UniProtKB/TrEMBL annotation:
It holds the Pfam family GTP1_OBG. This is GTPase Obg. It comes from Eubacterium album. Residues 349-427 form the OCT domain. PROSITE patterns: G_OBG (PS51710), GTP1_OBG (PS00905), OBG (PS51883), OCT (PS51881). Monomer. Residues 1-158 form the Obg domain. Residues 159-331 form the OBG-type G domain. GTP binds at residues 165-172, 190-194, 212-215, 282-285, 312-314. Its cofactor is Mg(2+). Belongs to the TRAFAC class OBG-HflX-like GTPase superfamily. OBG GTPase family. It is an enzyme of class 3 (hydrolase).
């Protein structure tokens, strides 16, 4: 089965925590801090694999987690970095954030390898926090938290030309005749269950990639039939070929079909109607009589805005003129594939770990709070003013420091020491 859309959960590795330890050497009763740093967490990396052409694998495995970094150790031991997780996808895969639908990355063009989520940085060991006034810091920095994201993977084929039309108008026959593609062909609706790609080689001219976009019927933009599954594949194409059954073998009206398909394209993405279009009026070999009123009617309805080419995909009649006209239309564009710009950067929605602190019970009735974060807060807070003192109290409460004191058993009237300041605790 062809699979071109899947939802998965990705999570980078958490950074390892910094370690708190002190040197213990013979004849050195009070060794300095020697806590090592934590290792860096692994990244989530998406990489294009040219050998893949579906997202089928992601229908079964939906959770992808990179390895966390190891915690630091004593004797300045650095924690081991977590391994990156490389997720391989077909070229043309667009990665979107689930809630907003915004593009995180488009694995096309130069984007062959993209780091989507960074692993958390490792926390610093207590050796980094030694100062002349604090020579034995009992705190270390925690590792940065992992980044996590729910994403939708969408495969949008990379083709210069999109071949659209209702079932049984001859798209697969045309593709097999003008390219090296070998699509399965039969006379029933939805024969083609996946977009077929082929390369058109023109004598004396540049070739181009053409895609048979299947599943287009009325209501396709609303998900009727298989339409919604495949409409996304036309978003990268630069030129659209409308193929219609000019002989009305199944009794269809080719003019109504073209208008219906354009309505579906506009409903799905209005920008698609701005793409250059050409009409391939197929099955002219099945039209009887000298006069060709059907072709005349199609030309009268759509030309000169949209050029009409009568063709026979079976006999090859008219194909050369059609293909060279398409090449001329493509020459108005550069050769670079259409790549969707990033709209959502996960790093913007990720909070960094603050500097560490420690809450400690020294003895019954006496508690201590230390750390760079606390020291920095004291540096710009005027505790002599009532407003400044209330601000500092709120800081302690909002950051969970008061909860930690209570967990250690502090009671009303106990003393809390904070860098030369002493406070009586009252709940």
């Amino acid at each position: 089965m062809f699979a071109d859309r899947a939802q998965i959960y990705i999570k980078s590795g958490k950074g390892g925590d910094g370690h708190v330890s002190f040197r213990r050497e013979l004849y050195v009763p009070n060794g300095g801090p020697d806590g090592g740093d934590g290792g860096r967490g692994g990244d989530i990396i998406f990489e294009v694999d040219k050998g893949l052409n579906t997202l089928y694998e992601f229908r079964h495995n939906r959770n992808y987690k990179a390895q966390p970094g190891e915690d630091g150790g004593k004797k300045n031991k650095h924690g081991k970095n977590g391994e990156d997780l490389i997720i391989k996808v077909p070229e043309g895969t667009v990665i979107r954030e689930v809630e907003t639908g915004k593009v995180v990355a488009d694995m096309s063009g130069d984007n062959q390898r993209v780091t989507v989520l960074n692993g958390g940085r490792g926390g610093k060991g207590n050796q980094h926090y030694a100062t002349p006034t604090m020579q034995a810091p009992k705190y270390a920095q925690p590792g940065q938290q992992a980044m996590e994201l729910n994403v939708i993977l969408e495969l949008k084929v990379i083709a210069d030309v999109g071949l659209v039309g209702f079932p049984n108008v001859g798209k697969s026959t045309l593709l097999s005749r003008v390219t090296n593609a070998q699509p399965k062909i039969a006379n029933y609706h939805f024969t083609t269950l996946n977009p077929n790609l082929g390369v058109v080689d023109l004598p004396g001219g540049k070739g181009f990639v053409i895609a048979d976009i299947p599943g287009l019927i009325e209501g396709a933009s609303e998900g009727v039939g298989l339409g919604h599954e495949f409409l996304r594949h036309i978003e990268r194409t630069k030129v659209i070929i409308h193929m219609v059954d000019a002989a009305s073998v199944e009794g269809r009206d080719p003019i109504a079909d073209i208008k219906a398909i354009n309505a579906e394209l506009e409903a799905y993405n209005p920008d698609l109607l701005n793409r250059p279009q050409v009409i391939a009026a197929n099955k002219i070999d099945a039209i009887y009589g000298e006069s060709n009123t059907i072709i005349d009617d199609i030309k009268k309805e759509f030309e000169p805005e949209i050029k009409v080419y009568p063709i026979s995909a079976v006999s090859g009649k008219g194909l050369k003129e059609l293909l060279y006209h398409v090449r001329e239309m493509l020459d108005e564009f550069d050769d670079a594939p259409t790549v969707f710009e990033q709209e959502y950067d996960p790093k913007q929605f990720f909070d960094n770990v603050e500097d560490p602190y420690t809450v400690e019970k020294i003895k019954d009735g006496l508690y201590s709070i230390e750390g760079p974060r606390i020291e920095r807060m004291l540096g710009y807070t005027n505790l002599e003013s009532e407003k400044g003192f209330v601000f500092f109290q709120n800081f302690m409460k909002e950051n969970g420091i008061l909860d930690e004191l209570e967990a250690l058993g502090i009671t009303d009237g106990d003393t809390v020491k904070i860098y030369g300041h002493e406070f009586d605790y009252y709940k």
